[in-house]
Amino acid sequence: MSNVVFVSSKETPPELALLSHQITTVTSAAQALIDAEGADVVVVDGTVDLAGARSTCQALSRGGNTPVLLIVALSGLAVLSPDWGFNDFVAAGSEPAEIDARIRVLTRSSADPDLLVAGPIRVDGAAYTASLDGAPLDLTYTEFELLRYLMQHPGRVLSRETLVSQVWGYDYYGGTRTVDVHVRRLRAKLGQFDYYIGTVRNVGYRFASAREAHRAG
Q1: How far, in whole angstroms, is CA 72 from its chain's centroid?
Q2: How confident is the model over 160-177, as pLDDT tens digits?
């Protein structure tokens, strides 16, 4: 059983209510962002207000790692695009079994320790790839490992010494200044999303938590 947040101005539809998951219904994107941190999947109702559903999906995509399933009417399928920020969609009126299958697939994906997602930033450790807003990020081996380690510890302050030992290895003798150099390069490649990597003065760096990233964005 998964914890599912349903974002809609309507009551929970039968196709969701009949499932064995724990369903929490909220009426706003702001509340969904708060509840999403404890949820396995967020389901966004796009059958009434498609423009509002798009804004909600984008806010959830920027604000955290919880996968988003969009329910959309058949008439709205033609306007869907990757920049909406949802992970999967299903047509309104689908059988409960179909929606259940989509939720289970998204839950398994979000539990994959090799896959890290923070808003537009996606790191796949198994495939050794990174992307930003769907576009590949051209990272060196060390930049990739640094980004991955930071994303594995959101909200936690990581000293330069810790980063050197965990990313470069205990046998590295080049000093901690190399961390600053690589962070600058990473931020340059993240462009407008460089705020995900914050500086803690005289200590080191921290990767933004979901809520901090949403406020900054």
Answers
A1: 21
A2: 988 988 899 866 777 788
